[in-house]
Amino acid sequence: MRVLIIIFISVLTGVVSAQDSLNLSGAIGLGLENNYQIRLSQKQLDIDRNNNTWGAAGRYPNISLSVGANGIADRYVNPSLLAIAREADSTIDVNTQQTLTVTPAANLNWMLFNGMAVNVKIPFTNAHTAMSRLKLT
């Protein structure tokens, strides 16, 4: 019986292993992977790259399209027919009126002169992107 307990404990300890060992470089790498400030800086760099266009700076026009719809269903009974139908004890046809209104719209906005802000915004955004890139290295 004693031998079985020793064999069972040795098999059990052989199957169960301890956690992986962690050296200094692995700990630093793991810390850098899980650092939220670094993740936020990487996302901000992606946003800066996306916004660094002449269209985002305001050189080109903004075009927006929209469509709206409105529907109305109205049931109408002619009052003169109602009085006649009551006297004759008959049924009345109810008129149903349906209306559908569709409203399309297109907007075009273009700033013709903004005090040379368009020409200043792109170099400023380039500098901001370069600073964000330096923070990450």
Describe the model:
This protein has helices spanning 2-15, 24-33, 36-51, 54-57, 79-88, 117-136; strands at residues 62-76, 95-109. It is flat. It is built from 6 helices and 2 strands. α3 (36-51) runs antiparallel to α6 (117-136). It is α+β, with helices and mostly antiparallel strands. A two-stranded antiparallel sheet has the order 1-2.
Number of domains: 2
H/E topology pattern: HHHHEHEH
Radius of gyration: 37 Å
State mean pLDDT (0 to 100 scale): 78
What is the overall silhouette?
Answer: flat
Strand order in the largest sheet: 1-2
Largest sheet: 2 strands, antiparallel
Q: Give the N-to-C terminal Cα separation.
A: 63 Å
Number of strands: 2
Class from secondary-structure proportions: alpha+beta
Low-confidence stretches: none
- Our count of helices gives 6
Beta-strand percentage range? 15-25%
- Residue share in helices? 40-55%
Q: Helices, strands, pairings?
A:
Blueprint: H1 2-15, H2 24-33, H3 36-51, H4 54-57, E1 62-76, H5 79-88, E2 95-109, H6 117-136
Antiparallel strand pairs: 1-2
Helix pairs in contact: 3-6
Structure described in brief:
The chain has 137 residues and is of the alpha+beta class. It contains 6 helices and 2 strands, in the order ααααβαβα. The chain has a two-stranded antiparallel sheet.
Question: What characteristics describe this protein?
Answer:
2 domains; 2 strands; 137 residues; two-stranded antiparallel ribbon; alpha+beta
